[in-house]
Structures are given as C-alpha cells and as structure tokens.
C-alpha cells in the first residue's frame, strides 16, 4: 500500500510540475520584468486553458491526498 502511494505521489508530482509549466503567463511577475508582459491578452480563456486548470486542480488534490495518506500510514504503523 505504501509503495503504491509513493509511486502515485511521484507521478502526480511530475504531472503537476508539467501542468503548472504549461500554464500561460498572466503577467505582472518576473516575466514582465524581462519583456514577457508585452503581449496583450485579447482573447478570453479558451477551453484548453480551462481544462488545463481542471487537470491541475485534480493533480493537486491527488498529490495532497497521497501525502496525507502516507503520513497517516506512517503514524499508525507503530
């Protein structure tokens, strides 16, 4: 059980990193300091961006659930 949760945790961590890096920059951060904020956002959120947001939130939920489950298993395996 612990090994399966650890594998799921590693996979969800990798996918979460990829999904966060796929997000479009919103501006106002370091990217605008180096000229990345020049583009204007003329179109609204696309379906792809909304789905990417959903997948990112799902990965966060899975990641947090794995961490909590692993901590509970460790605490009660005394």
TrEMBL record:
GO terms for molecular function: protein-transporting ATPase activity. Its main location: membrane. The keyword Transport applies. The chain crosses the membrane at residues 55-73. Keywords: Cell membrane, Membrane, Protein transport, Translocation, Transmembrane, Transmembrane helix, Transport. GO terms for biological process: protein secretion. One of its GO terms (cellular component) is plasma membrane. It is a multi-pass membrane protein. It is found in: Cell membrane; Membrane. NCBIfam families: secG. Involved in protein export. Participates in an early event of protein translocation. Belongs to the SecG family. This is Protein-export membrane protein SecG. The gene is secG.
